[in-house]
Amino acid sequence: MNRLRNLAFVLAFSLLTVADCSTGTQMTEATSTSQSGEDNAERNLVALKNTTLPPNPCDAVSCSHGCDVNDDGGAHCTCPVGKELDVDEKTCKDIPIKCPAGYKPNAARSGCVDIDECQQQPPVCGHSCVNTPGSYRCGCPDGYRLHPNGIHCIDINECRINNGGCSDTCYNTPGSFNCKCPRGFQLMAGGKICEQKYKCLGFGCAHNCHQAEVWYEPYCTCNLGYKLAANKKDCVDMNECGFFHRCDTSSGATCVNVVGSYKCVCNEPNKVLSADKLKCELKAQVTCASLGCSNGCDDTRYPPVCTCPNGYRLDTNGRDCSDVDECAEQTHGCTDTCINTAGDYRCECPAGKRLSNDLKTCVSLSHVACPMPTLFRGSVNCTSTSYNPGTICTRSCRTGFALSGPPSIRCQDNGVWTPDIPAQCTDIDECANNNGGCEQTCINFLGQHACACQSGFLLRTDRKHCKDAENPEFTNCPSNIEVNTQLSYATVTWPEVTYTDNVGVVNVVGPQTNEQNFTIGVHKVKITIFDAEGNSALCSFKVHVKDLELPVVSNCPDDINRFVLEGVMVKEVTWPEPTFSDNSGSVTVTDNIPTDNLFPMGEYNVRYQAADPSGNIAVCTFLVNLTRVNCPDLRQPVNGSITCDTSAINPFCEAKCDAGFEFLKSPPEQYVCGADGGWIPTDNVPDCHRTFTPTAAKATFSARYAHVCKDPENDPVFIKQTIMPMFQSQHVQSLQFACINKPCTFTDPVITCREKDTLLTFSSNEDLSGGLDLNAYVNGVLAEVQKQRYDSFFLTLIIPGTPEFFFPPIADLENRKIDVQLSLTCADGQVQIRNKCVKCPPGEPDCPLIQPGLA
């Protein structure tokens, strides 16, 4: 439209000039165009289409944008807003706008607008970005802070500041941290303060509470005589009689359970508890012989007692008898007068009366009867109880007594017994005849006798024979013994055990010698002796083999120092485990190693503790120290460069040569920054040396087939005749670029039948050094072979005349292997490096094949 406006203006100006020259051309409409816009200019152009006009000055200028006509009839180029004429005065260029950092020209290039750096790719910040006028700032999430480069976020180690607020151990983690408590403690609400996990206070033990170490859970115990209930806190009565008591049952003692304890009782009537209340002993031997009875003794019960005849009673001393005064005690029954006599009494009557037959009642003298006959220690049996004349009475004595006097009497008419001879019962001495049937001692009493035993013996149930009742006795029973262990045991010798018995010991149960080996701990030695009656005695003592030897630790590691890369909060650290041994053969090992051997930054004191059953302790301690480390910068190779990636956990770098240069000795594929601050595998970076085109190059092709020649003479001929035409006709064409405008030719192939495969080798006849990228050539050959892998060159080849299923293929896709090797000829002072010739400086250690001085 600018050209249109300019043309309208030029036309108007030209028409005005013509009018002034009086050309005769009508000017009426043309002069009006000086006052109109684009629409009038277009109408004027239509009106003047048959008018002859002068040339437009702008046509000669060739402006790139706009053109204006000068007052002198010339023209000059113009530019839109934001642009200005270049030095050629024809083309327009942007007017340079200088904006402050962080701003850019607006679309009209009339001013500057802010650059939103946060929208740029790749992102300018490692995490979050906030745009600001003329700039921006990077932000980080909680637990991170900006790296000094202002881009990346790095973890804040909260543990370095007041230990993170932790009362014990602080572990830093990416973006946060954790507090950890030692054994036996747990974190309180809030996750920072540790409190003891287990306490006896409030644990609920009924009797006693114990806690070996703060990290062990408390446990309850009960007082003697009680045991823990199922809830492991309450205590219930223990029936010691069911599984443990000290009652000596061999002595006849029986255990009876009581609340919180037990007691021993003796059930045999002739035994009582000993002073220690644990065994039964015979009561003091009480026999009729030992009582010293003045009259008689009753041994039908135990203990036996002294007896007295009728009319007598036992004195308080239990031995003597005293007369009973029946008259004074009013137990006589006499109707008139009572006269006391030794062991008896009699009744008397006044004048004119006489005693009746009951010897107690006084009757008139007119009644005739004999007095009632009596016999001390005997009895009288009469034919009449009225004792009238003619009554006959028979006399007899109690057992143990013998009658002296007439055995019978008769009552006469005058009331007198005849014969009037007194009778009495006298004691029989049974001991005089066969010792009364007693095994040991016989004691005679009035009307009876008793057998007795010597001291240490008791009467058997037949009351005649004696049995041994005295337990054997140890005359020397060793005291408790304490010895120190030698290895895992000790040989202990104790004094000879001696004993005695009233009849002799017939059996000894226990160690047969006074020397034995004992393992570490407390052992109880028991020796029991028996006599022929089965009476026994026990000798027991304790042997305590003490272990005072500490466990032995071997291979306790030295302090371990490890380097940790930036960003790594914890590191797994391992070491050969220390070993512990002990003479007891048993050792318990504890340690404080963190879970999964993950150690935090800083120092950590590792502690192993070994304890044997006796409580002897040995420890192994060492430090694990983790510190930050950075690897030094690698040297830049001459004619090459180093590129590194520091964003990885293990930063790594790669070395490469500039174009036209090559390493004499290949560097590692990567240099990795190791945990010890050194580069792995080395920090040695070789320099790069200039490469040159070889003076000559040959390619050698080899094809190996997993086929063993069955016919070493004919198989190679067939392979040569079959494969080479295929290779030359189908593959050389695709590789023709290597032969520079002529067919590629090859040497006659060599076929070798080997033990496990068949090898075909041939070389190119062409010199491939003429400007080829030899590495590209080799890669091209292999790529082309791979691309054409389905053609007949790699299909199965079968020897003619042989059935396919009887003979394996000579070559197929799975069996073949093609290799291409280049043989270069390099100028003096050069060596072949990866299909290139590289100039090798004199004395270079990586060029052993170059003689010094060749350059």
UniProtKB/TrEMBL annotation:
SMART domains: CCP, EGF, EGF_CA
InterPro entries attached to this UniProt entry: cEGF, EGF, EGF-like_Ca-bd_dom, EGF-type_Asp/Asn_hydroxyl_site, EGF_Ca-bd_CS, Growth_fac_rcpt_cys_sf, HYR_dom, NOTCH1_EGF-like
Domain Sushi: 368-427, 629-690
A single cellular component GO annotation: extracellular region
GO-annotated molecular function: calcium ion binding
Domain EGF-like per the UniProt entry, residue ranges: 114-154, 155-195, 237-281
Major localization class: secreted
HYR domain mapped to chain residues: 467-545, 546-628
Keywords: Disulfide bond, EGF-like domain, Glycoprotein, Repeat, Secreted, Signal, Sushi
PANTHER family the UniProt entry points to: EGF-LIKE DOMAIN-CONTAINING PROTEIN, VON WILLEBRAND FACTOR C AND EGF DOMAIN-CONTAINING PROTEIN
Protein name: Fibrillin-1 isoform X2
Source species of the chain: Lingula anatina
Origin organism lineage: Eukaryota, Metazoa, Spiralia, Lophotrochozoa, Brachiopoda
